[in-house]
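Table S2 (continued). Query chain:
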Amino acid sequence: MLGLNKIQRKNNYSDIQKCNDLSIYKTYNYLHFQKLQGNRRVNRSHLNRLLASIEEKSLIVPIIVNEKYQIIDGQTRYECWKMLGKPIYFIKISGYGLPEVQRLNNNMKKWNYNDFLDSYCELGYKDYLLFRDFKNKYGFDNRSSITMLKQSAGGKDTKDFQEGKFRVKNYSIACKWATEITKIKKYYYGYNRRAFVTAMLHLLNHENFDMKILIQKLKYQSSKLVDCTNKTQYVTLLQDIYNFKSTKKVNLIYN
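Corresponding output:
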């Protein structure tokens, strides 16, 4: 491995060469192209997401085809451009086939929450820096942290986070909630599951809920707190634990 002191950097870019074998072409003739037999089907949900993204701002990312104009990489981009009546940008490489398709797909890695978080933190986005501090301090996953910091669980949250539009609504309240929820950690290993977190946020915002009572009941009934698939199931389960041997039952499902 070369040390940085041995790497000579040139500012005149004289080492950059044009690769004539990889010219980018452009056409509106969609009939030129065809699906490569054996390639995976276009995912409809991915297609719809990409359509929305391209309609908002179209980026020129050429597809790759072989000498028969079979699409090696970029099936979904091709379908989107065709549906929107936009030109197809492509690179033609002879000899590519299904093995190259499979290798390209296996090596592709989409950006995840942490990739976007690191990116916007590096750019100095204040809300993302707060998000990272919150996540590191309390140990909740990305989606649970978003729910607490943004105080919502909408479907648009993921897109906003990816596009740098995430905003912290009230950091102190989110920290208060996180502190309360982590009190359950000693009784339930799944305290940081998103469905459980949303259930607990429902209870913490309920006028008849007392966290001290729940903790007291969990000391004797922690075995009853098991994994559930959604918020509603967790709230129902927590209500049963909360009301155990109580003379006055409290309805925690409805506010």
